[in-house]
Structures are given as C-alpha cells and as structure tokens.
Design a protein that fits this description.
- This protein is of the alpha+beta class.
- The protein is 26% helix and 38% strand.
- The chain has two helices and four strands, in the order ββαβαβ.
- Strands 3-1-2-4 form a four-stranded antiparallel sheet.
- The chain is globular, with a radius of gyration of 12 Å.
Amino acid sequence: MKIAIWDTYVKREDGKVMHFDILVPNSVTDEKTIFAYGKAYLKTKPFPTNQLSADECRLCHMEQATKDTILSIEQKGYSIIEMENCS
C-alpha cells in the first residue's frame, strides 16, 4: 500500500511543540479528513494542545507502508508516528 505522510507540528499549552506524522492511504487527499484524523489523535492526549490546521500539517512525501501501518489504517483509516513531545 502506498501512503502519504503528513508532517505535523502542534503547540501544546505548556509551550512544547508536538511533532508527529499522520499516515494515510495516498488516495486520501481531502485535507479536512486528514486534519480530522490528527484532531482525533490529539484528543487521546492527557494534555491540552492548540488547534491543528494547514499551518501545522503538510504533505511531506509518499512511501510504501509497513505491515503495522497497514493494520492501523485498516482499523482506523490512518496511522500516527510520534516523533517529539507526544507524551
């Protein structure tokens, strides 16, 4: 499965900046859908964050999905890779 990687930065209310990637099938191009996935992920966090928008989330590149990513996409429609300040 070919996936699109959306590089995302969201400021936490404590001043730290979260960095994570939203992974979706490359056929998903609607930004509102991708932002909704990011917002759903942010709701799982125990700390408040600022809004997610086109300023914080941009298409970075395409690549082949791993088996774990494919499983997550099949279950939720997307996958997240946490990079910095996500916990």
